[in-house]
Amino acid sequence: MTDRRVTDEPDGYGERGGYDAHGHVRLREVADDDLLLFLAYEHDPEALRRSGFTPRPREAFLTHWRQRVLGDPDSLVRTVTVGGETAGNVVSWTQDGRRFVGYWLGRPYWGRGIGTRALALFLDLESVRPLYADPRSANTASVRLLERHGFARVGTDGHGEDEHVLLALGRPPES
Fold it and tell me: Are 89 and 76 in contact (CB under 8 A)?
């Protein structure tokens, strides 16, 4: 059996093989067609309840993704696929001198280990440490997922009325 790992080449036939060891969770470059699925996933009522996120209208969402996410050379952005279907995305970016990671999966892909595998693949690509994440405190599944990957709680943040857990992978610099 061939060792098949992730690549960030869109066709999946790069030097590293294209697939994870399970052969179904992949990361690839974001295609413009992915954005409408990302928009639908962002508007899912249960996802919004868990994340505390305010969804953007269609044009604002597309503009944000095309200009601020995909248009930012500092960002590392990947589409998560499962069996060739677009399942969500994983993104890292720099904000206020810290490197952050975030992810969003469509509800059909929750609770199947896909987020765990996708984040592991992404962490192989994103080498900056410390790497931070700040999920909503009430989103215990996301907090647990990050902790399983070695993120440690380093504080809390307030975003509006919501409390968010600040987690770091790698040792934060001494203040």
Answer: no
Beta strands in the chain (DSSP E): 25-28, 76-82, 85-95, 98-105, 131-133, 152-159, 162-169
List Cα–Cα distances, 38 to 47, 148, 156, in angstroms.
12, 25, 27
| CA-to-CA dists, residue 9 to 12, 38, 115, 146, 160, angstroms | 6, 20, 20, 25, 38
Report residue 175's pLDDT band, with 50, 70 and 90 as the boundaries: low
Q: Hey, CA dihedral for 59, 44, 153, 124, is it positive or negative?
A: negative
pLDDT tens digit string along 14-66?
Answer: 333 344 445 589 999 999 999 999 999 999 999 998 888 899 999 999 999 99
Neighbours of 135 (CB within 10 A): 23
pTM over 0.85: no
Phi-psi region of 13 (alpha: psi -120 to 50; beta: other; left: phi over 0): alpha
